[in-house]
Amino acid sequence: MTTITELWEEFQLPIRDALHFADGQSFDVSLTPEASSGLTILAPFDLNSMLADDPSWTSSVDGLIETDLGNRGLLWGGEGSYGSEGFIARLTAERSLVWAIFFMDSNPFDQIQLTNNIATFISTSMVEITVDIDDPRAPIPGSVVGS
Q: Model pTM greater than 0.90?
């Protein structure tokens, strides 16, 4: 079991703008409104090292919206412990983590629009994040690579 899956079992995510995969890979992200996806995936980082400095640097997350993917699991969006925080996630049918993205300043996500494998999550402050649900690092069709 990886650190991120252990945190997820407690409905916790690290307080850092980041994408986390269940296999333990973590990447910094930044909100990029001008990008077609609404975010930029940055460099990988070591979550264990980050939490070694401050193990309590996590936020409780709570879902506000979900989209059922049938036997493929579900998409989930919601809020963190503080009003400005939001998260989006893909879960297995058993609600285990596939991936999650946490934002410190997006506000809670309360809408999901799904077309094929492309999901757009919209927050209460109208932040829009569009990702391929199979791999949020993948370019969105029609987007400019590197944006």
A: yes
Token digits for 93? 């049918």
Contact 79, 86 (CB under 8 A): yes
Q: Can you give the residue ranges of every domain in the chain?
A: 3-132
DSSP code at position 70: G
Question: How far, in whole angstroms, is CA 28 from its chain's centroid?
Answer: 11
Profile the chain (147 residues) by mean pLDDT over runs of 10 residues: 96 98 98 94 97 94 97 97 96 97 98 96 97 94 49
Task: Report how far apart, in Å, the C-alpha atoms of 113 and of each of 3, 7, 48, 77, 134 are.
Answer: 30, 27, 33, 11, 15
Cβ(125)–Cβ(34) under 8 Å?
no
